[in-house]
Design goal:
36% helix, single chain, 7 helices
Length: 171
């Protein structure tokens, strides 16, 4: 419940991306949409430290190391080389990635069934085949959920995902 979240110290999330600026990724992760849920109140129960590298690999590594040194409880990885860089910087801080490619093939996780280690995330195949299954699992985990939102509507595969989720939601 939201009251329990407010009673603890703020969760410190480090958000990092290889892009030139955070843009939509940073704004969404920074909590503008999450605050509307009433469960996340930036500054009260969540603190987000955001960094970007502008495409510079050394700057990306330094940004990731800085966020780990700041004491991030969780790292939120943007696209591109961000996840492998975070895995080089820390094997203990949980890393949440959003991937549209194969996280097993890229070496981020051992397997989808048993990822192991500190990375976790979402496999988003381009054909939308897992979108309905993710919704089903979410409904099982949170059966009273009345509204479900997505954080990446501008992803090139989002239209396919939305179609699959919308079809599953009406079943």
């Amino acid at each position: 419940p939201p009251s329990q979240l407010r009673a603890r110290r703020p969760v410190r999330a480090g958000a990092v991306t290889a892009r030139r600026r955070l843009g939509d990724f940073g704004e969404r992760i920074a909590g503008h949409r999450l605050e509307a849920s009433g469960m996340t109140i930036i500054g009260r129960n969540v603190r987000v430290d955001a960094r970007w590298s502008g495409g510079d690999t050394a700057r990306l590594r330094n940004a990731a190391a800085e966020l780990v040194a700041l004491g991030s409880d969780v790292m939120l990885a943007g696209a591109g080389p961000t996840t492998p860089t975070l895995l080089q910087v820390s094997r203990t801080v949980p890393i949440v990635f959003a991937q549209s490619v194969d996280p097993v093939g890229n070496g981020f996780v051992a397997s989808l069934a048993r990822p192991g280690g500190n990375p976790t995330g979402v496999l988003i195949p381009a054909d939308g085949t897992l979108a309905a299954k993710r919704l089903e699992v979410l409904k099982q985990a949170v059966p009273r959920a009345a509204r479900i939102s997505g954080l990446s509507p501008h992803d090139p595969g989002a239209a396919i995902q939305l179609k699959e989720v919308s079809s599953a939601a009406t079943l």
